[in-house]
Amino acid sequence: MTNFQPRWSFDLENLGTNTFKSQGLNCTYPNEHITQIEFNIMKQRILTGIRPTGKLHLGHYVGALENWIRLQEEYDCFFLIADYQALGDHIDEMENIKIAVRDVVLDWLSVGLDPEKSTFLVQSYVPEHAELALLLSMLTPLGMLDRNPTLKSERERLSNTSLSVGFYTYPVSQIADILLPKAHLVPVGEDQLPHIEMTREIARRFNNRYGEVFPEPDSLVGRVARLMGTDGQAKMSKSIGNVIYLSDDSDTVKKKIMSMYTDPTRLRATDPGHVEGNPVFQYHDAFNDDLEEVNDLKERYVQGTVGDVEVKQKLISAVNQFLDPIRDLRDKYEHDIDYVNDCIENGSAKARVTAQNTMKEVRERMGLSYSVNT
């Protein structure tokens, strides 16, 4: 065993619990028995998450999950299932939300997110999320919500639906989600960047008024900022149905890829084609590890010496090869639902300790204590 001797200095006569730092370590020991020292490598924290509205798809992987897998090795990661926010436009679909929560955890485990390295939590299992959202709403101008581009687009999409106040204020809920664990970094899709700017602004407002409590988080966009849908739409969307799910079987993947939108200006296989803006080639770039094959297909496509069928067949092979190990892991965890439940419950319990500490500080800073000293 290696004899590790950290370099520190501390006062052995201190009567309280001593905390000190030694080259990035947080070391704590009790004054009565200096026999055991706990070392916790200090990591910056990440909060990121998803609404449980269904299974996850390839767009989620390249836009978010791929980053999360790497980041869990470097950061203290909190992965949130935002079920409160799903209620905003799915309040009559509680059974679907329950199924979706389970599906999200299964997909997380299947791609390699590790609950031993990170924290899986359900928003409603940590009620401090709702409390902080309410308090932060008092600092959020209505005009800030009106200007939020993501909220604008969602309102337009649901223009024929009677929207609730909860839906309208979900950006404030997102801000609370990020600030509650005092996250330093938020991996997001490109369309979520305005939310991070709002979060930074509200954190500044709170800190300027009540004192420094919250860090102003930075954002991190995935390798593919926005994966096009199989129909050529700008983004994959479960509501439109232009997605390939991480859990799709090989035959389903084949069917979806063979029906993919390509280049509408190309009428025959001998016509020169366009690679840029062509979703089939965007998917090749994202999921085909054989760069030589991808470059060859692109060159021949532009020259008009390869047809859409061959390009799609190569893509089917690449995507199924990518998904095979994910499917295998999903099958394993689907047969161990007790473990899936433990991931949710244990992670949420851990997250609630952090949340309670933050809210204690928030209430003290805001003066939300009305006890009279006698």
Furnish the topology, listing elements before pairings.
Blueprint: E1 18-22, E2 25-29, E3 38-41, E4 45-50, H1 58-71, E5 76-81, H2 83-90, H3 94-111, E6 119-122, H4 128-137, H5 142-147, H6 149-157, H7 165-168, H8 170-179, E7 185-188, H9 193-210, E8 218-221, H10 250-258, H11 279-287, H12 291-303, H13 308-334, H14 337-366
Parallel strand pairs: 4-5, 5-6, 7-8
Antiparallel strand pairs: 1-2, 2-3
Could you name the key traits of this structure?
mainly alpha, 14 helices, Rossmann fold, 8 strands, Tyrosyl-Transfer RNA Synthetase, three-stranded antiparallel sheet, 374 residues, disordered N terminus, three-stranded parallel sheet
- The CATH homologous superfamily name of the largest domain equals HUPs
Work out the radius of gyration.
24 Å
Which architecture of the largest domain per CATH?
Answer: 3-Layer(aba) Sandwich
Question: Which blocks of ≥5 consecutive residues have pLDDT under 50?
Answer: 1-41
Strand content: 5-15%
Instruction: Give the oligomeric state of the chains in this entry, treating copies of one chain as homo and distinct chains as hetero.
Output: single chain
